[in-house]
Amino acid sequence: MAAVGLGQAARTTPAGALPANMVPHPREELFTVLVVDDHPLLREAIAARLLQMGAGTVHEAASMAEARARALATGPCDLAILDLGLPDGTGIDLVTELRTQGWPRIVVLASSDDPYAVRAAFQAGAQAYLLKSASPMVVTDGVRRVLDGGVYADPSVAPVLAAGTRVPGTDNTPRELSGREVEVLQLVADGRSNKEIGEALNLSALTVKSHLSRIGRKLGTGRPGSDGRPGHARRGDQMTG
Predict the structure, then answer these.
(1) Is 209 in contact with 121 (CB distance < 8 Å)?
(2) Among 20, 75, 77, 218, which residue has the fewest nearby CB atoms (within 10 Å)?
(3) Where is the Response regulatory domain (predicted)?
(4) How far apart are CA 9 and CA 5, in angstroms?
(5) Which one has a higher pLDDT value, 137 or 237?
(6) From the candidate CATH numbers 1.10.418.10, 1.10.10.10, 1.10.20.10, 3.20.20.140, the one assigned to the domain spanning 176-223
(7) Based on C-alpha coordinates, what's the Rg of the chain?
(8) Tens digits of per-residue pLDDT, 160-175?
(9) Exposed, middle or buried: residue 95 (CB in 10 Å: 0-12, 13-18, 19+)?
(10) End-to-end Cα, the chain, rounded Å
(11) Measured in whole angstroms, how far is the alpha carbon of residue 157 from the centre of its chain?
(12) Which residues fall within 8 angstroms of residue 37, CB to CB, at 6 or more apart?
């Protein structure tokens, strides 16, 4: 495993290193990730987790400056995981920059459950908001949902979005999540798969995906015309379904 540094190699999954049952879609191309966090141990733990999930390459950066240099060197990866509290700037600005540059999937990792930060992250274009105190399983579930084109909020911050959330729509007019969308978002935060959400709410899998797409658009994370797949790593059914 290589250490962080722009002149050093990224972490990669050696050929044949993962058993087939650990790779989400063994017959498909592995996904690429950029992890930005100024705490080396946490960054390394996240990188190791992503490699176990089937990431082919994990690039790392410890600051806004390093992240910008990485982004310029690699171009958009399938996924970015960003710390909000960086030493040389705010992660919210980095979310906006990467989305503008065409990065398709962004997960925010934060220490705070501050309502302003949660809403600002989603409105800037993040698809998930995870807390650093979250369990490895919560992190894994959130990342998988985002890779599959969904949205995710840590269970402790989901109520911030679900309770009367008003967000600007594509025409800049405020839009609220509907009662059903709130229910779907809360079940997502509980770690339920699309199938389990459908069973709980008596909805078809297609309807659940439709609700998730609308939630994504209302939170500012949806991409009209997108096929719901990350970059070139094309995926099929919900991983956790």
Answers:
(1) no
(2) 20
(3) 32-147
(4) 8
(5) 137
(6) 1.10.10.10
(7) 17
(8) 666 544 444 444 444 5
(9) buried
(10) 32
(11) 15
(12) 43, 46, 62, 81, 82, 83, 109
What φ, ψ does residue 31 adopt, rounded to 5°?
Answer: -85, 160
Find the Cα–Cα–Cα–Cα dihedral 34, 42, 157, 211, rounded to 10°.
30
Identify which of 132, 179, 173, 122 has the alpha carbon closest to the alpha carbon of residue 152. 122
pLDDT in tens, 175-228: 566 767 777 877 776 667 788 888 888 888 888 888 887 777 766 554 433 333
pLDDT above 90 covers a percentage of the chain that reads 29
pLDDT in the model for residue 55? 92
Domain with CATH 3.40.50.2300 in the chain: 31-154
Q: What is 31-154's CATH number, 3.40.50.2300, 3.30.390.10, 3.50.50.60, 1.10.3720.10?
A: 3.40.50.2300
Residue 111 CB neighbour total at 10 angstroms? 12
pLDDT band at 19 (very low <50, low <70, confident <90, very high): very low
145 within 8 A of 215, measured Cβ to Cβ: no
91-100 and 64-74 are packed helices; what angle lies between their axes, rounded to 10 degrees? Answer: 10
Read off the tokens for 76. 């958009």
Q: What is the pLDDT of residue 162?
A: 61
